[in-house]
Amino acid sequence: MPRYAMRVEYDGGPYSGWQRQKDLPTVQGVLEAALAKLQKTDPKVAAAGRTDAGVHALGQVAQADLERPWDPFRLSEALNYHMKPAPVAITACAEVPDDWHARFSAIRRRYLFRLVPRRAPMTTERGKVWQVPHVLDAEAMRTGAAHLIGHHDFTTFRSSICQAASPVKTLERLDIHEITRPDGFTELQFDVRARSFLHNQVRSFVGTLERVGAGSWTPEDVKTALEARNRAACGPVCPPGGLYLARVDYEDDPFAGVL
């Protein structure tokens, strides 16, 4: 059975996360239903990461083994047709070796978080960014974020329901960029990279750093919270709407050269 890798983009707002759940709408459910239109046996899809309810993706990666060979472009076109009008799209598709795996072959995951300090309600981007009604000190947030870079026990920033075997992870990057928006406001974009993440880790980071930017915490308080290795020391966990699984990296990019 040939195996195909698919880069998947979706609006997570209407879904109860990526993973298939009984009687609940999920992104995996949408993709598997579309695949079921193309073959007789029930398809099984695996993904690079299980995004939570309300979390979006620009570059989720999934895999599926199909009954017969497909031209990758025609497969992506067929799936996009059958997924309409769901806000889910295959943006690239490639045939991969049988031992390639969307999750286990990944060497890095990149998340984007969008935070907009603005009092007026969001309209066209409601559910796509986290809005706070006060000014934030981005430089103080960067100073606080620097304490999180590296190899640490991230128990403080780990959900109580996290199923990872260990809270120890290596955070490669946590950059905070200030972007001038067309509406005149400054958006803070968090570029967060690691081989793998704990459940709610990125949202815990951003919620904590927002408190630094607002002046309720000092940058040094982030270091204190990290070293506490206690979930109670974490700042607020921010809402999911501003979080995007932006990209998954592999040693050999299966989508290299694919438009």
TrEMBL record:
Binding site for substrate: 111
Active site feature: 52 (nucleophile)
Enzyme class: isomerase
Keyword tRNA processing: yes
Assigned keywords, A-Z: Isomerase, tRNA processing
SUPFAM superfamilies: Pseudouridine synthase
InterPro entries the record matches: PsdUridine_synth_cat_dom_sf, PsdUridine_synth_TruA, PsdUridine_synth_TruA_a/b_dom, PsdUridine_synth_TruA_C, TruA/RsuA/RluB/E/F_N
Enzyme Commission number(s): 5.4.99.12
Gene3D superfamilies in UniProt: Pseudouridine synthase I, catalytic domain, C-terminal subdomain, Pseudouridine synthase I, catalytic domain, N-terminal subdomain
Domain Pseudouridine synthase I TruA alpha/beta stretches: 8-104, 145-251
GO molecular function terms noted in the UniProt entry: RNA binding; tRNA pseudouridine(38-40) synthase activity
Any single GO BP term: tRNA pseudouridine synthesis
Taxonomy, superkingdom: Bacteria
Catalytic reactions on record: uridine(38/39/40) in tRNA = pseudouridine(38/39/40) in tRNA
Stated family: Belongs to the tRNA pseudouridine synthase TruA family.
Subunit structure: Homodimer.
Known role: Formation of pseudouridine at positions 38, 39 and 40 in the anticodon stem and loop of transfer RNAs.
NCBIfam families for the chain: hisT_truA (TIGR00071)
Protein name: tRNA pseudouridine synthase A
Originating organism: Histidinibacterium aquaticum
Gene designation per UniProt: truA
